[in-house]
Amino acid sequence: MNETQMLLDAVAAIPDLHHAALATIVKVTGSAYRGPGARLLILPDGRTVGAVSAGCLERDLVERTQRAIAARSPAIATYDTSDLGDNVWGLGIGCGGSIDVLIEPLLPESDAARLFPYLRERLAQKDTGVVALVFRASGLAVTVGARLMLAPGKSAETEIANAALAAWLRSEAEQTRAVGRSAVRTYETPNGSAEALLEVIAPPLPLVIFGAGDDAIPLAQFAETLGWDVTVVDSRPALAQSSRFPGARLIVGQPDQVWDRVSLTESTAAVVMTHNYPHDLAIVGTLLAAPALYVGILGTRKRTAAMLRELNADTSRVHTPIGLDIGSETPAEIALSIAAEIQAVCAGRRAGFLKERQGPIHDRE
User: Fold this and answer.
1) Which of 37, 79, 85, 320 could bond to 297 as cystine, CB 3.0-4.6 Å?
2) Strands, DSSP E only, in 212-348?
3) What is the pLDDT of residues 46-75, one digit of tens each?
């Protein structure tokens, strides 16, 4: 399930938010397990939903949360993990970076509480927004935790009274949405300054699987685990069943009958695995005329080459043989290689071993 959806489901189940809190990574310097925007929901009974680390920081954050709730005020927790030998907090993390985490009690009047309806709307609309979160301020009349929330086709939502700061955040949010990458920005004036996280709120990756055979099941399962938005298309009603693909949207119909029900955008990943040559031919022809980000075809080189020749298609857009070269043999292994390739393409990476990567593992400023 998508991590944001998990948080929303957990918040909806809390009868009283007064004793819950939200912890958000707002800034990372150096290396860290999670990046800015990662969230941890701390429930009234101390249980948590989400993650801001590999389990290293959560216990300490739960303890800090109780103090923030008692004070009814947000607080910043800074974890310096750059010293491999440092055993501060009894953690001894040694990740090589500094992490700032904003802890916010979920008071009804807080911007933290207003965030959840906004996230719910982004998931429902399947569009991309930006949240500008002020996490430090000096000399300016603005509350730490104040947010400006930008949604497509709407005026930015904010309760920030400082008009100049609000205008600057709106401009930065629009630029961030155009770039599609979260960032930390500093607003400076002669009277004071503010630091803000500009977080891109993107919908789950839409994956369309053409083919509901047994080998499509593990691919749909991997995609569901990754939180992707899965659609399965097949002409065979007996195979396109919710019992086989729980959580996926199912479309049944011949290749020429389904396109009014299939959404293809510039962020869509499509995998063709019907194992029916005429069907694959018709589907691939339509996909290559659409703006899909990823088009993969399962099949032998000879079969796919014949198909692409018949279509007179641009082969540079097609991923075939599909998947990463990880020695896959079983349907589950093949599904793993396909899901990994889709993730790499969508992240703009060339895959490969991380130990051979030059530069940071995470793309951060």
Assistant:
1) 320
2) 229-234, 249-252, 269-272, 294-297, 318-319
3) 899 998 887 778 888 988 988 998 888 999
